[in-house]
Design the sequence.
């Protein structure tokens, strides 16, 4: 099948590309960044700006995909540094993709949503259909993107599906999210023997190993239409605290010194998100199951940390 991936240079996209290739898809990427030097064979890379409707439209027309995985976005922490650009990239970009999909006969758009669509004070575990009142520009644009996609499904005949990702962790460079501390804990424990975490040890959030997240997107994309009762699904795996991550790291890097010095801006974002999310709709409508718990995730990350350090420099 022909697919187009936006945000292919990002944390999720860079891993989704090889995964889609392994599954036998023909992949075209659309990203602001230039193509990396190593790309799976056959992948075509189109460099362009998601806020440029014309560029998006011609990339979609040129690729002729059946499915678009729309991942291009600015994450929560980076988003607060430039809310205007975040609005243009996240919401304008989603509008451009949906329009290009509609006018070019794309069958399905897959959307990366997030737990950042939730605001403070919701009863936990947070259900799939609740009042969405986020306090970050990232969250606001992701809620609007969910609604826009639902509109295109109900009024414009496009198939629109998405998952609300928890914090995604893998041994890849994270893109400026609030949940990035989890990965840096492993990396800096190995390369420096210490890490100063920018949130409190007690901070607890839904988290997921990236491989589970990639599989979720693909499985939802392939789920039979008649089983799905909605467009957007909560998905969760584990909900460890930052302190639990530190324990998992210390177990693997004996003597690692992990301290907690909260950065008020990022702590505030984290505190606005729920600790526990209910994903029973995904589990019953398309058989979603996570495979990685904290131990398995930590082992998988540790295996790849040396290569990441090589890439990042010491
Ligand atoms: N990982 C994201 C962030 O921290 C949440 O979707 O912004």
Sequence:
């Amino acid at each position: 099948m022909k697919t187009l991936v936006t945000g292919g240079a990002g944390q999720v996209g860079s891993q989704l590309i090889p995964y889609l290739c392994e599954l036998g898809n023909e992949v075209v990427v659309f990203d602001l960044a230039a193509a990396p030097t190593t790309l799976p064979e056959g992948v075509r890379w189109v460099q362009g700006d998601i806020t440029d409707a014309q560029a998006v439209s011609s990339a979609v027309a040129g690729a002729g995909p059946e499915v678009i995985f729309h991942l291009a976005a600015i994450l929560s922490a980076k988003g607060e540094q430039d809310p205007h650009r975040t609005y243009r990239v996240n919401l304008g970009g989603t509008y451009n993709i949906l329009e290009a999909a509609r006018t070019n006969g794309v069958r399905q758009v897959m959307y990366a949503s997030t737990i950042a669509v939730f605001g403070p004070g919701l009863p936990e575990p947070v259900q799939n259909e609740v009042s969405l009142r986020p306090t970050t520009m990232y969250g606001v644009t992701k809620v609007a993107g969910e609604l826009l996609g639902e509109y295109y499904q109900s009024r414009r005949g496009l198939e629109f599906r998405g998952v609300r990702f928890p914090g995604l962790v893998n041994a890849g460079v994270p893109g400026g999210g609030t949940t990035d501390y989890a990965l840096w804990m492993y990396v800096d424990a190995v390369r420096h023997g210490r890490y100063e975490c920018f949130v409190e040890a007690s901070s607890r959030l839904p988290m997921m190993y990236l491989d589970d997240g990639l599989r979720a997107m693909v499985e939802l994309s392939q789920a039979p239409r008649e089983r799905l009762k909605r467009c957007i699904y909560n998905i969760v795996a584990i909900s460890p605290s930052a302190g639990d991550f530190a324990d998992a790291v210390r177990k693997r890097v004996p003597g690692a010194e992990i301290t907690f010095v909260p950065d008020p801006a990022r702590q505030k974002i984290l505190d606005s998100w729920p600790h526990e999310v209910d994903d029973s709709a995904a589990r019953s409508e398309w058989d979603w199951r996570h495979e990685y718990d904290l131990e398995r995730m930590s082992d998988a990350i540790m295996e790849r940390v040396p290569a990441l350090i090589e890439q990042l420099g010491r």
